[in-house]
Write a structure and sequence with these properties.
alpha+beta, Heat Shock Protein 90, 5-stranded antiparallel sheet
């Protein structure tokens, strides 16, 4: 791939019926660009977990994808409650999912840890009452 590709998706909070559309589109885009399957898999995991966090916890959010020959960057911003204790939220098994979310199979407390594990660079910042921003990079 020569140059750079920039794409963005809007994600609606509580839209469980539409959950996964953005991450599926990201996966298909990367496959179409000929990105290595192992890299596509890592980005697919990261993007799905990020999208589900928007759906589960925020009112709305955006996912911006930037693909260059060397790196894939995903920037995720949401308008949600924010995370009061990022260190705690990064712990495997920690979850604030509601019982309804758990009944749907979500809320195992693996989202943020999975994102970090599948990233080459993972930055998270959050403001309570405003939202959360993720800046993720996966090297090609």
């Amino acid at each position: 791939m020569a140059g750079q590709l920039d794409l963005a998706w809007e994600v609606r909070g509580r839209d469980f019926a539409g959950a996964g559309r953005a991450s599926t589109s990201i996966k298909e885009t990367l496959k179409g660009l000929g990105v290595q399957p192992s890299v596509v898999r890592r980005v697919a995991i990261v993007s799905y977990e990020a999208e589900m966090n928007i759906v589960m916890y925020a009112d709305r959010g955006t996912m911006q994808l930037r693909v260059t020959p060397r790196v894939i960057r995903l920037e995720v911003d949401d308008a949600g409650p924010g995370i009061p204790d990022i260190e705690q939220a990064m712990q495997v098994g920690y979850s604030t999912a509601t019982p309804e979310m758990r009944e749907m199979g979500f809320g195992a407390g693996m989202g943020l840890p999975n994102m970090k594990r599948n990233s080459d660079r993972f930055d998270i910042s959050s403001t309570v009452g405003r939202g959360t921003r993720l800046q993720i990079q996966v090297d090609q």
